[in-house]
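Following up on my earlier thread - several people asked me to post the actual chain instead of describing it. Fair enough. Here it is, all 185 residues.
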Amino acid sequence: MFVELLPLLRNRTVSISVAVPADSDGITLTIVPKVTDEKAEECGSIKDAAVKALSGALTLTAQTAEELDAGLHQALLQYVGSQLTIEGSIREMVKTVKAAEEEAKEAAKAAVAAAKKKSGQATVGSKPTPPPAPVEEKKSEPTAPPSLFDVVPAEEPAAKPEEDVSTAASFAAPVPSSLEASAAA
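Reply from S.P.:
Thanks for posting it. Predicted structure:
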């Protein structure tokens, strides 16, 4: 039993409980892994989900101790294998999440730097630039409203686009007499 549990014991503590419930004739074995605080902190932002996944208990119930012994080896191998697979998946997720967080931080820094550059503010490590001198606006004298008798120079007409000869011809083509008769009838 402990040989099968050894890979699991290397990464976390395990509580083992064996009981014979009063209301049944069977025997129950429960194995509960406990994730250490150090291991949980390694999981970063997915800590709660990781602890929940890595703390899944194995409960075996049998009618007799012999029956429990017979299936215990195979059940422990499957359980430890699934726990190690889950642990490996969580490790990969932690790497992915940390890489995404770093990428997001870099993108945010780049966006802030670009915004500062665009707005003319100084970036970290550079000297602040003095604000530009105010530009004096030239006030123009108000113009009198136009009179009805004012002569406005005529604008040149816009150049007409050349017509498509085939389209113009199709509109100007005479209607055959056979069609005129059918349309009139």
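The first strand starts at residue 13 and ends at 19. That should answer part of your original question.
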